[in-house]
Amino acid sequence: MKLLGLVIAVLGWLLAIMSVKLASPPAQIICALAGFTVALIGVLGVLNAAHLKDAIWKS
After folding, report:
1. C-beta atoms surrounding 47 within 10 Å
2. Taking Cα atoms as reference points, which of 36, 31, 47 lies closest to residue 12?
3. What is the value of pTM for the model shown?
4. Per-residue pLDDT tens digits for 43-53
5. Is the Cβ–Cβ distance between 34 and 13 less than 8 Å?
6. Which residues contact 43 (CB under 8 A, 6 or more apart)?
7. Burial 15-29 (b: 16+ CB within 10 A, else e)
8. How many whole angstroms separate alpha carbon 40 and alpha carbon 12?
9. What is the pLDDT at residue 50?
């Protein structure tokens, strides 16, 4: 689960970086926002949930 969260976060980051190659500014903004959203879902959704499963205060 942690590896999946990391992969999703990196893919979102790469999507945001790839927005630089687009020609039109609105497309760049949409692509960058989509990349940031995917990265946030990976970090706050998947990675955080995996971390909370094995949290030190739950043992």
Report:
1. 19
2. 36
3. 0.83
4. 999 999 988 88
5. no
6. 5, 9
7. bbeebeeeeeeeebe
8. 8
9. 87
Extract long-range pairs of 53-59: CB within 8 Å, 24+ residues apart: 53/1
Please give the angle made by the CA atoms of 30, 50 and 53, to the nearest 5 degrees.
145
Tokens 């739950």 -> residue: 58
DSSP one-letter string for the chain: -HHHHHHHHHHHHHHHHHGGG-SSHHHHHHHHHHHHHHHHIIIIIIIHHHHHHT-GGG-
Q: Token pair for residue 25?
A: 């500014």
Q: How many CB atoms lie under 10 A from the CB of residue 40?
A: 13
Task: Assess contact for 15 and 29: CB atoms under 8 A.
Answer: no
